[in-house]
Amino acid sequence: MSEPGPGLAGALALIADVPDFPEPGILFKDITPLLADHTALTAVIGALAAAGRDDSGRPVVDKVLGMESRGFILGAPVALALGVGFVPVRKAGKLPRETYAVSYALEYGEATLEVHRDALEPGDRVLLVDDVLATGGTAKATMELVEHCGASVHAVAMLMELGFLPGRDAIGDVPLTCLLTV
């Protein structure tokens, strides 16, 4: 992928640092100023969608999966930009029909993600979209859900990556696009 242009660089500059949120010692990255700016949001959606295109610009994915909850905000417009459907990956108990579920470890406990069993067709190629890659637990669990459906992960696209954490290791050999590394 090419280097971000001034439009994307300007968009990423809108991410605000909020010290000591949600607890002392944490530097929170607030994406709401970026989301509120149409030009910035358009640049980010275009850059994330590029991970689902081939070199000629044609979409090469059948669906975009967005992980709860900010992955919904970014993933749905990425799906629209690619001309494909959007699939939400939700926390346990939030989807109304039969689901596949994958549990994974958190720093203090466990979380479970679910996807509808009929959300993907066997053979579908999917793009995973979320806001932050940290330890990679959410992305890895989502990749497992995709496999349960008989589909495959074409690529993972993240707004930002926390470079001091091992998230990339959890992704493995799947192509990864991160627009910003902090």
From TrEMBL:
In terms of NCBIfam families, this protein maps to: apt (TIGR01090), PRK02304.1-3 (NF002634), PRK02304.1-5 (NF002636)
Function recorded in the entry:
Catalyzes a salvage reaction resulting in the formation of AMP, that is energically less costly than de novo synthesis.
Q: Superkingdom of this entry's organism? A: Bacteria
Protein name, please? Answer: Adenine phosphoribosyltransferase
Q: How does it assemble?
A: Homodimer.
Molecular function, one GO term = adenine phosphoribosyltransferase activity
Supply the source organism for this entry: Nocardioides caricicola
Q: Name one Pfam family in it.
A: Pribosyltran
Q: Where in the cell is it found?
A: Cytoplasm
Pathway involvement of the protein, from the record: Purine metabolism; AMP biosynthesis via salvage pathway; AMP from adenine: step 1/1
Cited InterPro entries: Ade_phspho_trans (IPR005764), PRTase-like (IPR029057), PRTase_dom (IPR000836), UPRTase/APRTase (IPR050054)
Q: Which UniProt keywords apply?
A: Cytoplasm, Glycosyltransferase, Purine salvage, Transferase
Which residues does the UniProt record annotate as the domain Phosphoribosyltransferase?
36-157
Q: What is its EC number?
A: 2.4.2.7
This enzyme catalyses:
AMP + diphosphate = 5-phospho-alpha-D-ribose 1-diphosphate + adenine
Q: Which protein family is it in?
A: Belongs to the purine/pyrimidine phosphoribosyltransferase family.
